[in-house]
Amino acid sequence: MNQRKKQPRQTRLALVEAAGAEFARHGYAGTSLGAIVARSALTKGALFHHFPDKQTLAAAWIDESLAATLAARWITPLAELASLDALRALYRAQCLELQPGDDTSALVALTAETAAADPVLGAALERIFAGWRTAVAGLLERGKFAGWIHRSIQPAGEAAMLVAAIAGFSVTTRGQSDDAIRRTCATALEGYLETLRAP
Amino acid sequence: MNQRKKQPRQTRLALVEAAGAEFARHGYAGTSLGAIVARSALTKGALFHHFPDKQTLAAAWIDESLAATLAARWITPLAELASLDALRALYRAQCLELQPGDDTSALVALTAETAAADPVLGAALERIFAGWRTAVAGLLERGKFAGWIHRSIQPAGEAAMLVAAIAGFSVTTRGQSDDAIRRTCATALEGYLETLRAP
Questions:
Q1: A110 in Cβ contact with A125 (< 8 Å)
Q2: Which residues of A touch B116 (CB under 8 A)?
Q3: Measured between alpha carbons, how far is residue B76 from residues A137, B70, B135, B136, B180 in Å?
Q4: pTM
Q5: Is A123 on the interface with B (CB under 8 A)?
Q6: Is the pLDDT confidence value at A5 over 80?
Q7: ipTM associated with this complex
Q8: A18-38 burial, b for 16+ CB within 10 Å, e for fewer?
Q9: In chain B, where are the structural domains located?
């Protein structure tokens, strides 16, 4: 514990990661500060030293951790894509990997649970969704310019559709452990992406 | 209270409706039996007379109430449709009406929150999603037969895509009270539906 006290950044990070693991598994209301403390192997005193309440801790997790893991999965790889086939392959692979308790599922579940009632968390979660939509729209815009996306496509609208569909897939796959539903979702997504192709 | 005691069906219904209103607003973990009792203006004794625990009450609400309101909004009207334009108009109108705390939002939020951890609730919620996908696939099959849906369309896959997108829209619109996001979602959905049209 002494060592932890000397490393406030590391303590803070441990609390944020423990909180995220609990939120992803049990939701916001279903997570107690006691459970977070227990998972972090720290003390409630350490928690309250860094965060006044659960909301602040959740907002820190969303901004500092969830945003980065979501970006690594769905956003950053878009920068390297130069064809519709590459986008299809990337997002198909990601859909096949959707699992209850993963970062995508946590984003969607936390938004569904808290965004309407808690403007602070809602805004933090919406920033992730907005960044995701902006990145997809940017890629489609690039694709139009490069000639592999149909020139009649409206990037912002298609990005909204694509991100919503993936969010919905993460809900649909949540209760089902078999892979058939993931393959159906991935194939449906590919069929949709195919409609964006330039002739 | 005496009158209620004489009408067990009405008491049960009042409890189910009160539970649903709380679940829709506060989620599953965020709802206490005390809050349900308070909303119903009944007693905890009455609640435990009808339901042994929160899970049973939630399952009853999903099967007996949420399934019907979801069907009335998204499924039953499909039976009367005879053109892609009619489907576009119906689902556009429904998307524009998506609100935090409504039945669609409750279905998605409860699924996101509970389906992975609670197989009983997960199965009850998945039955609603499955019925919805089956109804959409049936309509698309009819549309292929009647010649207003493209004959290369795979109804099951497109139904999975469509239902997932609407579920995702209900998450996306949850944190945002302005109507711009609803219009973006509705327009994106219409653009997607247009790709199913027979030439």
A1: yes
A2: 100-101, 105, 174-175
A3: 34, 9, 8, 10, 28
A4: 0.91
A5: yes
A6: no
A7: 0.87
A8: bbbbbbbbbbbbbbebebbbe
A9: 1-51, 55-194
Chain B contact for A32 (CB, 8 A cutoff): no
Domain B55-194 classification at class level: mainly alpha
Domain A1-51 and domain A54-194 have a common topology: no
Task: Retrieve residue A113's tokens.
Answer: 């649970």
Instruction: For the domain made up of B1-51, give the CATH fold.
Output: Arc Repressor Mutant, subunit A (1.10.10)
Q: What is the mean pLDDT of residues A109-121?
A: 89
Token pair of A136 as six digits: 């997809």
Contact B117, A30 (CB under 8 A): no
Of all helices (H) and strands (E), which one includes residue A96?
A: helix A84-96
Contact of A108 with chain B, judged by CB distance below 8 Å, is answered with yes
Q: Hunting for tokens 């399934």 — which residue is that?
A: B67
Mean pLDDT of A181-198: 90
Look at B164 and A161 and tell me if their CB atoms are within 8 Å: no
Share of chain B above pLDDT 70, in %: 95
Torsional class of B183: left (φ above 0), alpha (ψ -120 to 50), beta (otherwise) = alpha
Q: What is the mean pLDDT of residues A147-164?
A: 93
- A54-194: which CATH architecture? Orthogonal Bundle (1.10)
Taking CB atoms and an 8 Å cut-off, how many pairs form between chains A and B? Answer: 172
Query: Do residues B147 and B141 touch, judged by C-beta distance below 8 A?
Result: no
